[in-house]
Write a structure and sequence with these properties.
The structure is a single chain. The chain is α+β, with helices and mostly antiparallel strands and about 190 residues long. The protein has one domain (about 10-185): Alpha-Beta Plaits, CATH 3.30.70.560. It has helices spanning about 45-55, 95-110, 150-160, 170-180, and strands at about 35-40, 60-65, 70-75, 85-95, 125-130, 135, 140-145, 165, 170, 185. The strands form three sheets. Strands 1, 2, 3, 4, 5 and 10 form a six-stranded antiparallel sheet that branches. Strand 8 and strand 9 (about 170) form a beta hairpin. Helix 3 runs antiparallel to helix 4 (about 170-180). The protein starts with about 35 loop residues before the first strand and ends with a strand. The model is unreliable at about 5-30 (pLDDT under 50).
């Protein structure tokens, strides 16, 4: 199966949080503070992600720079569950990394996420993937996220917004080309 088509850098708008193809520029490491992965496999998956973005930005201390398209992806880790919709967004924020993580987890709880089992079904999942050039390894937060390079459901959306971003010595493009992306398809 071929890799999903991705928006070209010219199609990713820094003023367009929906991720629709419009004129814009590709964000680079200097134009955003963090990248957050989004995922849902319960209810109206795309609407869940839209609501999470709205909640994340409603206080004005987090703003979306670019948002990928939505991708249908098979479950990972625990495979006997419904398929996921995944996306990624780059954001600007004044929040430090741990406060951004707390905000993400608060939104997950507000939206009804209950963790019953690892990698189980979720109404919403928000993961801080990178925060500026921060390298962090503590019990609550590891940056960059340690599994980015192994997960097509993370890398496919990242290809839309930051294909040349280097994480751990490899570009998103290099990691994506090396990962099995069977079953990953762009929805919009």
């Amino acid at each position: 199966m071929s890799k999903p088509n991705h928006a070209s850098p010219e199609q990713v708008s820094d003023a367009n949080p929906s991720g629709d193809a419009t004129t814009g520029s590709l964000p680079d490491r200097q134009t955003f503070d963090a990248i957050i992965a989004l995922g849902s496999n319960m209810g109206d998956k795309a609407a869940n992600m839209d609501r999470a973005v709205a909640l994340l930005t409603e206080n004005g201390d987090v703003s979306v720079v670019a948002r990928s398209g939505n991708y249908a992806t098979p479950p990972w880790g625990k495979t006997d569950q419904d398929w996921f919709v995944n996306a990624a967004m780059s954001v600007n924020t004044k929040l430090p990394p741990h406060a951004l993580l707390v905000r993400c987890k608060d939104i997950e709880r507000e939206m009804g996420r209950v963790v019953i089992e690892r990698w189980g079904p979720r109404v919403i999942d928000l993961d801080v993937l990178v925060y500026r050039d921060t390298i962090l390894n503590d019990p609550d937060l590891v940056l960059p996220h340690p599994h980015i390079g192994a997960r097509a459901f993370v890398l496919a959306p990242l290809m839309d917004i930051a294909p040349d971003l280097v994480i751990g010595g490899r570009s998103v493009r290099e990691m994506y080309d090396a990962v099995d992306s069977a079953g990953v398809r762009r929805l919009d």
